[in-house]
Amino acid sequence: MTDLIQLPATKAVDMLRQGEVSPTEMVEASLRRIEETDGNLNALPTLSAERALDHARRIESTKTNTKDQAGWLGGLPIAIKDLNDVAGVRTTYGSPLFKDNIPDKSDVMVDTLEGNGAIVIGKSNTPEFGHGANTFNEVFGETLNPWNTAMTSGGSSGGSAVSVATGQTWLATGSDLGCSLRTPAAFCSIVGLRPTPGRVARAPTRLPYDNLWVQGPMARNVGDVALMLDAMVGEHPEDPISFARPTTPFINAVNNPVKPLRIAYSPDLNGLVPVARDIAETCKAAIDQLSDIGFSIEEACPDLSDVREIFHVLRANQFVGDLAEIIDANRGQVRPEVVWNLDQGSKRTAGELASAERARGRLYSRAAKFFQTYDLLITPATIVAPFDVKIRAINEVDGHTFENYFDWYMIAYAITATSLPAMSLPCGFTDRGLPVGLQVVGPPRGEAPLLGAARLMEDAFSIVKQLPIDPRLNID
């Protein structure tokens, strides 16, 4: 079982497809690893062991002709972020308001994954309603970073990132509005992909036309992310912005990678964000390493100068539309930051929203034009390394003070506003041994070239060989 948790997901799925290992054995290996490690991490506070074993036995007893289908996972256990309903499994959304909630029906993404042979092993921890880049809540507490359990795992997909990094699961789901796939991936030295809005169908949702937040895959390497993306994508009639799966599987782009001709690198989005020295130095060393092996990289960035105001307005509107009814009815029972978000959003006017939408349209045009010249844009994935889990958000970096609890991850949410696909890719470590990631951004709907290029970069960095990791306890 120790050998099984060491396997990349692609290899594990190959073995499942060929009958060299059974889904039950994979579930048992996952449960054993969770038992060994999660007491020091709190990544998967809700397990669905019996449900998973029942599902494994059903897969084993069913003859299927889908074993060669792209995205067929063959009975591989995965973690589902605790924002997604799983039928019969406690689903809290990180909120005390829903601490006893057990849905009767799974959501569309979960149904899609299970229909493609994934087995849900448990629910991964998330901050309340997924808001915030540090994973903690009043239901389950804090999720700790396996590279140093005194540190945050990031958020809001922190539990998913930790479960993957430590070998509790091979794959996990995440979601991302401002940074929630990319920050925890960077903080835990795994790969997290924010796909194009509509690539992964979402339903039911209170805002089905919203295109700020997406769901996507998290894994230890780029090939595993592509494998999981193939199991997640596709059009669904309940999601009006979803679109069809591509005719060519994403895993093909990883298995046959094409080197990008021209890459832009921006260390700070043209001075838009401060970046801590250890992050800046580690990312620059990674860029130099890529240049040394023949990648053509030059410093450039699309004009993102108005992205802060755009995102603030659109995020506020999304927050009010999604959560106002729940929060207004329960103001004294949710985090103060959650109430603050609602109050800030309620102050916005229709004129501000219209102006932000027009500005976002111009922003997208500039970004699309930028990618007529460059194949990829690379930036740091975060502006700081993992920090003390008791620090709820970063207030200041290098003399720059942030006005709110979420502007410290502007380097990520600036890309959210463009709707471009973006990945956090491990690229190195600080002098204190804490993970650092690059944010690699692809062209419009360009997940395939993004994945292929990231595979080549991953090979150069060789960090994936260090995973899965055993928890490193409270390193000074």
Gist of the model:
The protein has 476 residues and is an alpha+beta fold. 37% of the residues lie in helices and 15% in strands. It is built from 15 helices and 17 strands.
What does this structure look like?
The protein is α+β, with helices and mostly antiparallel strands and 476 residues long. It is built from 15 helices and 17 strands. It has helices at 2-6, 9-18, 23-37, 49-61, 108-115, 158-165, 182-188, 222-232, 250-255, 277-292, 307-328, 336-346, 350-370, 410-416, 447-461; strands spanning 46-47, 76-81, 118-124, 136-137, 141-142, 144-145, 148-152, 171-176, 191-194, 214-219, 263-265, 297-299, 376-380, 396-397, 400-401, 422-429, 435-441. Strand 4 (136-137) and strand 5 (141-142) form a beta hairpin. Helix 3 (23-37) packs antiparallel against helix 4 (49-61), helix 11 (307-328) packs across helix 12 (336-346) and helix 11 (307-328) crosses helix 13.
